[in-house]
Specification:
The structure is a single chain. The chain is of the alpha/beta class and about 280 residues long. The protein folds into 2 domains: about 10-170, Rossmann fold, CATH 3.40.50.300; about 200-270, Orthogonal Bundle (Conserved Hypothetical Protein Ylqf, Chain: A, domain 2). It contains 11 helices and 6 strands. Strands 3-2-1-4-6-5 form a 6-stranded mixed β-sheet, with helices on both faces. The chain starts with 7 loop residues before the first helix and ends in a 10-residue tail after the last helix.
């Protein structure tokens, strides 16, 4: 399957971002900690090359802690200010506001030198669809300011949220880039729900996921599906066995691979397979 997903509203959202950047001091980019490389939109690097940069590794509660620590240092070494975050938990965003302020210290000093006191930092919150931008904003603001949902495309337009006298955030719609050069990137983005499930082939996604789990997290796979029996060697047989054991059956009692695939993908998204990072 070729993953190609760039509807008209994303093109419009990108143009709006280009316009908004004229009044923005910093970009706070929300990444999904389970795919900390693939969830990074290269267009945001291009758009924000002259802005202060903050990266939030969101949904870190669902990711492998060792890999999250690795990628936190990875991005810090590249010059980003970085925080890890579980934005669904109000305390999970602790430190993020301080990180944003620290990233803009140079701007604050320049303002003071020019006699500008009390001008708030303006930060754009950006990222791919369903990475948790609006949930992050609501948690850091301590109230429901932005509409949220566990699917892509919930945020339709831009919205300013004033956190305090020092910081204002701009919520923006999630955008992808026009073409995935590496189809595995598209696959990983699909896993976290950033592409509409209706256009995907769940069995192809599932086979890829089982392959990754078999290689990197075999104990998680066994613990979830094969506690009392041996796990088959072949990926196709693994999916068939899970379909049978979970009652995902088609006519005649045959394994329903599509139904089983959706079940396995949902188990990954909800962390019932454990804390997993795909990169």
């Amino acid at each position: 399957m070729v993953y190609q997903w760039y509807p008209g509203h994303m093109s419009k959202a990108k143009r709006q971002m280009e316009e908004d950047l004229k009044v923005i001091d910093a970009i706070v980019e929300i990444l999904d900690a389970r795919i900390p490389v693939s969830s990074k939109n290269p267009d945001i690097d291009t758009l924000g090359k002259n802005k202060y940069r903050v990266i939030i590794l969101n949904k870190s509660d669902l990711a492998d802690p060792e890999r999250t620590a690795y990628y936190k240092k990875y991005y810090e070494d590249k010059g980003f200010f970085v925080n890890t975050c579980d934005s669904r938990n109000p305390s999970g965003v602790n430190g993020s506001l301080d990180i944003i302020t620290k990233a803009c210290e140079e701007k604050i000093k320049k303002d003071r030198a020019r006699g500008i006191i009390g001008r708030p930092i303006r930060a754009m919150v950006a990222g791919i669809p369903n990475c948790g931008k609006s949930t992050f904003i609501n948690s850091i603001a301590g109230k429901a300011c932005a509409k949220t949902g566990n699917k892509p495309g919930v945020t339709k337009g831009r919205q300013w949220i004033r956190l305090n006298k020092q910081v204002e955030l701009l919520d923006t719609p999630g955008i992808l880039w026009p073409k995935f050069e590496d189809q595995q990137i598209g696959m990983k983005i699909a896993f976290i729900g950033s592409i509409n499930d209706d256009i995907l082939y769940p069995e192809e996604l599932c086979y890829y996921l089982i392959g990754v789990l078999k290689e990197r997290y075999p104990d998680n796979l066994k613990q979830r599906y094969f506690k009392d029996t041996d796990m088959p060697e072949e990926i196709n047989d693994i999916v068939k066995s899970i379909a049978i054991s979970r009652g995902a059956l088609a006519g005649g009692g045959e394994p329903d691979i599509i139904k089983a695939s959706r079940l396995i993908i949902d188990d990954f998204r909800s962390a019932r397979l454990g804390k997993i990072t795909l990169e």
